[in-house]
Amino acid sequence: MTIEEFQSLDSPIHHWSAVQKSLWYDKKGDWKTAHDLIDQLDGLDAAHVHAYLHRKEGDPWNARYWYNRAKQTVYTGSLEAEWAELFKLYFQ
User: Fold this and answer.
1) What local confidence, expressed as pLDDT, does residue 52 receive?
2) How many domains does the chain contain in total?
């Protein structure tokens, strides 16, 4: 799936993981639903997206906590670039 195909969807696909759905809701501008989907999940993938969402929220302390939980370095590029990298990781 390309980013363009992903963005053209009216709703997330039912068989997607919570991480994938979270990325879809974030891209559609619904940060709260994106966060709610992964807030209580365990696992490195959920922690990675959780870190990105807190960085986007403007909460660097909380983002660092989640990057650490995800075993990832803190991302320093743009939010758009980070989202694109997460898309590649979890959709391709």
Assistant:
1) 98
2) 1
46-70: per-residue pLDDT in tens? 999 999 999 999 999 999 999 999 9
What are the residues whose beta carbons fall under 8 Å from the beta carbon of 35, sequence distance 6 or more?
22, 50, 53, 57
- pTM, rounded to two decimals: 0.93
In a domain, 80, yes or no: yes
Residue 8: inside a domain: no
- The torsion angles phi and psi of 79, rounded to 5 degrees, stand at -60, -40
Dist. CA 14–CA 46, nearest whole Å:
18
Domain span at residue 33? 28-91
Dist. CA 63–CA 74, nearest whole Å: 8
